[in-house]
Amino acid sequence: MVTVELHINARKVKIDVDPDMPLLWAIRDFVGLTGTKYGCGIGQCGACTVHLDGNATRSCSVPVSAVGNQKITTIEGLSEKGDHPLQLAWQQEDVPQCGYCQAGQIMNAAALLRGNARPTDMEITTAMSGNICRCGTYQRIHKAIKKASTMRN
Ligand code: FES
Ligand code: FES
User: Fold this and answer.
1) What atom of ligand 1 comes closest to residue 132's alpha carbon?
2) Are strands 55-58 and 71-73 parallel, antiparallel or unpaired?
3) Residue 47 · residue 7 · CB < 8 Å
4) pTM of the complete model
5) What is the position in ligand 2's atom list of the atom closest to the CA of 97?
6) What is the CA(65)–ligand 1 centre distance, in A?
7) Is the distance from the beta carbon of residue 132 to the nearest atom of ligand 1 less than 6 Å?
8) Which of the four pLDDT bands, split at 50, 70 and 90, describes residue 152?
9) Rounded Cα gap, residues 104 and 106, in angstroms
10) Is the pLDDT of residue 153 over 70?
């Protein structure tokens, strides 16, 4: 066991954990933020996507001890009032079906828009290709990202 300090959603949290434990476990079971989901556990589905210093990262595939001082942002910390352009567009386009994959989808899309405010259709498709939705909401996800990109200044 080691004591790890996480900088998560603008607060600091100290937890005593196995250093090899995936960050996803720390976020959900130790910090209690359950918006980030466990899907495959092997970096293949994107359900566990969070930001580390703004970069989309599969939290199931990062040991908690490797995070260091990087700032973790989860879906709960993406915006103060749930009014990030993507969250607004997601509501307007009624994107989710079961909803399980959607936090990961939004976090991946948010990292895309952060680095590319006006992505082309191809850039959206490429950036989102690693996020699996078992309900098949891909067309609405794409439409919502397009809409969100027009909301940004
Ligand atoms: S749970 Fe992390 S990529 Fe699937
Ligand atoms: S909305 Fe059900 S898995 Fe994507």
Assistant:
1) 4
2) unpaired
3) no
4) 0.97
5) 1
6) 18
7) no
8) low
9) 5
10) no
